[in-house]
């Protein structure tokens, strides 16, 4: 369990928000234990477990809350405690991060899920497919469209700035 | 800036957000809490499972004593709370919350029979008059669900509550645990039938409510839908569900012809 709990908490945080992540991950481990007979021996365990985590987190998070809003306050506290290179650099970095978060939040859920699995959770294409319960080709096409949208959105922001 | 650099920058930005996620999660070991909950739940589950088995055995014994072709009208809910056929659990009465309305058909992703068979041992009907399915769908949850869709045509009237579909055959890799829930509402009733060598249940008499479980074991009644006639049976590790507005003998023939 210790081996997978980091991934489980991150997955839950992405879907349900940081404040619900630990409860969701804990619940998911309990349920996964009860549903081990549904796990196909020989297939990879991590994506199966993360699919359970994702389902539990989705059920627990009835609101439209997104992790980007949930993490912002603690991260800001962390950054404030660090030695910042310069106020100007920090402001620029912060602005870019805000823009990326905002662009991510604008994506339709089906695209956002794929992007989060691939880049935030660092799952492979096959793992993403299993966790989200969609075909691998769908992961590929949704990711491509999501990145196109993000690229366009961020370009617009840059030009606007 | 060339497009490839722009894409690279977006990807780098997204990966940077991943570090924020790590920073927001404080170090924590969940193992003790999870172990404690598992021990509690094991202690609770034993008497509950015994009671569940008793109810099921009582229900089957009572119904078999009445007739070989068994009708379980909602009025006899006192006899049994549910029947379990492979991955399908049939409940007496409405779903939790009393919700029983029409909802969309959710079959997963459109695919091909070969692709579905690469992921689970899907079978197709060989009954006369049925060729290849018009559509094959696959849903990866709970080990896999393959759905075969036959559009309406001669001898295949439209199934209730599904536009343009004459027959829907769903195959679940269930092994006895409830994954799909059927709630007997609106005067619907369950009738025990034999599908070749397999025992099954035919639900008829009115629309019943169908809800899928999440892979975590919770019935997702919010995504459920109303269904007309349906035949359910279990064979060789698969739970089969056939939905269509066909008479029972025809439904059984289709079920028995699955290869």
Task: Walk me through the structure.
The complex is a heterodimer of chains A (161) and B (259). With 161 residues, chain A is mainly α. Chain A folds into 2 domains: 2-60, RNA polymerase sigma factor, region 2, helix turn helix motif (Rna Polymerase Sigma Factor, Chain: A, Orthogonal Bundle); 83-160, Winged helix-like DNA-binding domain superfamily/Winged helix DNA-binding domain (Arc Repressor Mutant, subunit A, Orthogonal Bundle). Helices cover 80% and strands 0% of the residues of chain A. In chain A, α1 crosses α2, α6 (109-120) packs across α8 and α7 (125-132) packs across α8. The longest helix of chain A has 25 residues, at 136-160. The radius of gyration of chain A is 17 Å and the shape is globular. Chain B is an alpha+beta fold. Chain B has 2 domains: 1-66, no CATH class; 74-256, no CATH class. Chain B has a 9-stranded antiparallel sheet with strand order 1-9-10-13-14-7-6-5-4. In chain B, strands 2-3-8-11-12 form a 5-stranded mixed sheet. The longest helix of chain B has 36 residues, at 31-66. The radius of gyration of chain B is 22 Å and the shape is globular. Residues 52-81 of chain B have low confidence and may be disordered. Chains A and B meet through α1, α2, α3, α4 and α5 of A and α1 and α2 of B.
Provide a brief overview of the structure.
Chain A has eight helices and no strands.
What is the topology?
The complex is a heterodimer of chains A (161) and B (259).
Chain A: H1 2-16, H2 18-34, H3 45-60, H4 67-81, H5 87-106, H6 109-120, H7 125-132, H8 136-160
Chain B: H1 3-24, H2 31-66, E1 71-72, E2 82-85, E3 88-92, E4 109-111, H3 113-119, E5 135-139, E6 145-151, E7 165-172, E8 180-184, E9 189-195, E10 198-204, E11 208-213, E12 219-227, E13 230-235, E14 238-244, H4 248-256
Parallel strand pairs in B: 3-8
Antiparallel strand pairs in B: 1-9, 2-3, 4-5, 5-6, 6-7, 7-14, 8-11, 9-10, 10-13, 11-12, 13-14
């Amino acid at each position: 369990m210790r081996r997978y709990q980091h991934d489980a908490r991150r997955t839950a945080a992405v879907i349900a928000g940081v404040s619900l992540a630990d409860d969701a991950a804990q619940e998911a481990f309990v349920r996964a234990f009860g549903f081990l007979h549904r796990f196909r021996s020989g297939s990879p365990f991590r994506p199966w477990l993360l699919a359970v985590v994702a389902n539990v987190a989705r059920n627990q998070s009835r609101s439209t809350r997104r992790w980007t809003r949930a993490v912002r306050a603690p991260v800001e506290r962390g950054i404030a405690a660090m030695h910042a290179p310069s106020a100007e650099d920090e402001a620029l970095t912060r602005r870019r991060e805000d823009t990326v978060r905002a662009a991510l939040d604008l994506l339709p859920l089906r695209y956002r899920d794929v992007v989060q699995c691939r880049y935030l959770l660092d799952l492979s294409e096959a793992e993403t497919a299993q966790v989200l319960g969609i075909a691998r080709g769908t992961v590929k096409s949704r990711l491509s469209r999501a990145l196109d949208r993000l690229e366009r959105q961020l370009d617009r922001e840059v030009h606007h700035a | 800036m060339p497009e490839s650099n722009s894409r690279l920058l977006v990807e780098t930005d997204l990966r940077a957000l991943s570090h924020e996620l790590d920073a927001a999660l404080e170090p924590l070991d969940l193992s003790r809490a999870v172990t404690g909950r598992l021990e509690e739940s094991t202690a609770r589950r034993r008497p509950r499972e015994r009671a569940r088995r008793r109810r099921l055995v009582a229900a089957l014994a009572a119904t078999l004593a009445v007739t070989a072709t068994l009708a379980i009208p909602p009025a006899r809910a006192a006899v049994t709370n549910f029947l379990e056929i492979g991955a399908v659990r049939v409940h007496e009465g409405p779903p939790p919350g009393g919700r029983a309305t029409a909802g969309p058909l959710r079959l997963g992703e459109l695919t091909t029979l070969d692709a579905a068979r690469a992921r689970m041992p899907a079978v197709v009907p060989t009954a006369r008059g049925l060729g290849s399915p018009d559509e094959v769908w696959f849903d990866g949850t709970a080990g896999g669900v393959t759905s075969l869709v036959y559009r309406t045509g001669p001898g295949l009237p439209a199934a209730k509550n599904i536009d343009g579909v004459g027959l829907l055959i769903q195959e679940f890799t269930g092994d006895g645990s409830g994954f799909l829930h059927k709630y007997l509402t609106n005067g619907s009733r369950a009738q025990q039938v034999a599908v070749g060598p397999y025992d099954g249940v035919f639900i008829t008499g009115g629309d019943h409510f169908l809800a899928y479980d999440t892979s975590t074991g919770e019935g997702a009644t919010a995504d459920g839908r109303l269904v007309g006639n349906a035949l359910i049976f279990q064979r060789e590790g698969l739970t089969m569900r056939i939905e269509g507005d066909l008479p029972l003998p025809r439904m059984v023939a289709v079920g028995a012809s699955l290869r």
